[in-house]
Amino acid sequence: MEAPGEPVPTRLDGADGLVVLGGAMDFDDTDAYPHLLATMDLLRDAADRETPALGICLGAQLAAAALGGRAYPGPAGEELGWTKVELTPAGQADPVLGALQEPAELFEWHHDTFDPPPGATLLAGGAVYSSQAFRLGSVVAVQFHPEVDGPLLTGWWSTTTPPPNYPIAEAVAGAARNAANATRLLGAFCRTVPDAAASG
Fold first, then answer.
1. Which of the 8 DSSP states describes residue 82?
2. Res. 195: pLDDT tops 70
3. What amino acid positions are annotated as catalytic residues?
4. Is the pLDDT of residue 7 over 90?
5. What is the pLDDT, as a whole number, of residue 198?
6. Contact, 126 vs 76, CB < 8 A?
7. What integer pLDDT is reported at residue 1 of this predicted model?
8. Which of 77, 86, 141, 166 is deepest in the core (most CB within 10 A)?
9. Is the whole-model pTM more than 0.85?
């Protein structure tokens, strides 16, 4: 959801779950984008309340930083395109990440990365960046983009200058090829939300 000019709440009062998506800004662009600080407050509130939360790409980096880990510029530079992500044994057993069928091919577009917070469980890694997903309590964070489809990727390509150094046709084809697997992950997260609401 986009709501230009609307303040980001700092608490989840009345909400049963939280999803924090990616963005064109960096995790530390807080002077230009002060809503990033409020978003980290929301993630902390979700963790404190044991409310299901999913951080995607920038959202994962913010979750790591908010919960005591570290987000920082990735030493390997930009990771862009469809990438093999390997689940750890904990990831295979996780109620959200474990919904993925392996081998899992997921879309990446980031140049920053994260170290998971203390006490977090690493759920997935990759060849370029070893931290691809973690869980800390009710908060799950993934560096990749399970939400992408062909139209979304086409929109990203059309509004990026200069154009991304990755063929749009390959990006869109990968979205069709991997849609069912990504949907499994998103569906698994959504199923944790009514469970949490019912138990609360």
1. E
2. no
3. 57, 145, 147
4. no
5. 63
6. no
7. 45
8. 141
9. yes
Inter-CA distances, 8 with 1, 47, 65, 146, 152, Å: 12, 17, 18, 23, 24
Measured between alpha carbons, how far is 140 from 117 in angstroms, rounded to an integer?
12
Q: Pick the range with the lowest mean pLDDT from 8-12, 21-25, 79-83, 113-117.
A: 8-12
Q: How far apart are CA 80 and CA 134, in angstroms?
A: 20
Measured CA to CA in angstroms, residue 194 lies from 17, 101, 187 at distances of 9, 23, 12
Gap between the Cα atoms of 44 and 94, Å rounded: 21
Report the mean per-residue pLDDT for the chain: 94
Distance of CA 114 to the CA centre of its chain: 11
Tokens of 153: 């990727």
| Beta-sheet strands, E only, within 14-155 | 18-20, 53-56, 70-73, 79-87, 104-110, 112-115, 121-126, 133-136, 139-142
Q: Which amino acid is at 132?
A: Q
CB-based contact 189:140 (threshold 8 Å)? yes
